[in-house]
Amino acid sequence: MDATPGQPAIDPPLLFVTFSQISLSGFGGTLPWAYRMLVERKAWLTQREFAETLALGQLLPGPNVCNMAAMIGYRYAGYRGAFAALAGLIVWPFLIMIVTAILYQRYGELPLVQQALSGMSAVAAGLVLSTGIKMASGMRRHWRPWLFAALSFAAIGLLRWPLLAVVGALAPVAVFVSWWSRR
In angstroms, rounded to a whole number, what is the distance separating the alpha carbons of residues 96 and 14? Predict the structure, then answer.
């Protein structure tokens, strides 16, 4: 739970502030901002640690970034750190969404509001894509993951097949191909 040598101590208030900054920056998705803050700016995690924490967060029930916040908070400051990081990630968006819902109920039908929401969704998609590219750059180079990523994109993004069906079909094939190549 202690900070690594040469790294400043990371206490619950700092975790709260950092994850508050992530949540307030991440309209439409906090993963790109979490990567930027935790790996690039603060260097609390390496690219590999971020990818591993994200993978574990995806396996656990609940939102993966919330799971990551709890794991990172616990790593540096125990249960208090986990609570602080999770609270920083959740409190501000919760309050903002309450105010936004009230405003949307009143002004949501205006064309300007509709156009703004459409533009924000494009920005969020671009941020998620750029984070995926950054994370992929730190991984080992091999053709198989790229093949399955392209197949997934084609099936879901272009052909509009259901996500669950595509993952249900491609995941066992990917596991088998990986197993077969290691034999």
Answer: 21
42-86 residue pLDDT tens: 999 999 999 999 999 988 888 889 999 999 999 999 999 999 999
Entry pTM: 0.59
Contact between 93 and 23 under an 8 Å Cβ cutoff? The reply is: yes
Nearest to 85 by CA among 38, 34, 40, 20: 20
Quote the CA–CA distance of 51 and 57 in Å, as a whole number.
Answer: 10
Angle between the N-to-C axes of helices 47-59 and 111-137, in degrees from 0 to 180, rounded to the nearest 10: 120
* Least confident piece of the model among 4-8, 47-51, 101-105, 112-116: 4-8
Instruction: Print burial letters for 35-46: b (CB count within 10 Å at least 16), e (below 16).
Output: bbbbbeeeebbe
The CA-based dihedral angle spanning residues 120, 122, 125, 129, taken in that order and rounded to the nearest 10 degrees: -130
DSSP H or E stretch at residue 9: none
Residue in 141, 138, 149, 123 with CA at minimum distance from that of residue 28: 123
